[in-house]
From TrEMBL:
It comes from Panthera tigris altaica. This is Olfactory receptor. Belongs to the G-protein coupled receptor 1 family. It is a multi-pass membrane protein. The gene is OR52K1. Keywords: Cell membrane, G-protein coupled receptor, Membrane, Olfaction, Receptor, Sensory transduction, Transducer, Transmembrane, Transmembrane helix. It is found in: Cell membrane; Membrane.
Length: 314
């Protein structure tokens, strides 16, 4: 394996270290990672199969769930195969352009996931606060436009990154201290003025997380007000019960982000592998846990899964 002369504008390839400081444990670390990835693949593919085959599930809530499942599949599949190749076969080399593509997909689909979670909050808001207008508000055309807007926003925000990284001269070696091509990990290898990349990356992250999370919180404030106005306690439980799965998905997605952000500021002296493990947790945990949450808490999906098992046992 060779890495090209990095005195040119950019190297032909980078070397991914994996998890710095834990290289001797890569094989053992790969066991829970491969298990989580397998669960993510099985769970999300099963969700997509159920939603696609059952016409009763062709409703806004489940269409948004299908979008989330596709995003989770792409997010985990963008990073995990290469990560496992590093852990199992020490295949650390990644082509420069493949690295940029991986980074683009990783960050773009993370932004799309945030947008879909916001759309699902809007779906629950309309279902609980304006139930009589649910079918007229959340039409098929609106759902399509929401999906297209999520893709457009992500692509628009992330398209500049590969072009910004191409213009740098990489004189700090080919070693990326990470197990996938994360934007700031690549920027650290570049020489010259990288302030714009630093500011742009932070600004986009703050814009997406703060704005989307703010609207999600506002949606649930209105939902909570509507639920508390219901006359019977049973009706309140039933109404809020329809939101439990979505709240679980929000917590599984945003909790690792918040923890990682706090760790970067509070525990700056922490070993690099701590931050990298948190980043991997963010990529693996939501795709693995979201199908489980929706499978357990959503009756229609749970019944469909049980019927599939019953057919196999007959």
């Amino acid at each position: 394996m060779t890495v090209s002369n990095i005195t040119t504008t950019h190297p032909t390839s980078f070397l991914l270290v994996g998890i710095p400081g834990l290289e001797h444990l890569h094989v053992w670390i790969s066991i829970p990672f491969s298990f989580a990835y397998t669960l993510a693949l099985l769970g999300n593919c099963t969700l997509l199969f159920i939603i696609q085959t059952d016409a009763a599930l062709h409703e806004p809530m489940y269409l948004f769930l299908a979008m989330l499942a596709v995003i989770d599949l792409v997010l985990s599949s963008t990073t995990l195969p290469k990560m496992l190749a590093i852990f199992w076969f020490r295949d650390r080399e990644i082509n420069f352009y493949a690295c940029l593509v991986q980074m683009f997909f990783l960050h773009s689909f993370s932004i799309m996931e945030s947008a879909v979670l916001l759309a699902m909050a809007f779906d629950r808001y309309v279902a609980i606060c304006k139930p009589l207008h649910y079918t007229t508000v959340l039409t098929g055309s609106l759902i399509t436009r929401i999906g297209m807007a999520a893709v457009t926003r992500a692509v628009t925000l992330m398209t500049p990154l590969p072009f910004l990284l191409r213009r740098f001269h990489y004189c700090r070696g080919p070693l990326i201290a990470h197990c996938y091509c994360e934007h700031m990990a690549v920027v650290r290898l570049a020489c010259g003025d990288t302030r714009f990349n630093n500011i742009y990356g932070i600004a986009v992250a703050m814009f997406i997380v703060v704005l989307d999370l703010l609207f999600v919180i506002l949606s649930y404030i209105f939902i909570l007000r509507a639920v508390l106005r219901l006359s019977s306690q049973e009706a309140r439980y039933k109404a809020f019960g329809t939101c439990v799965s979505h709240i679980g998905a929000i917590l599984s997605t945003y909790t690792p982000v918040v923890i990682s952000s706090v760790m970067h500021r509070v525990a700056r002296q922490a070993a690099p592998h701590v931050h990298i493990l948190l980043a991997i947790f963010y990529l693996l945990f939501p795709p693995m846990i979201n199908p489980i949450i929706y499978g357990i808490k959503t009756k229609q999906i749970r019944d469909h899964v049980l019927s599939l098992f019953q057919r196999k046992n007959v």
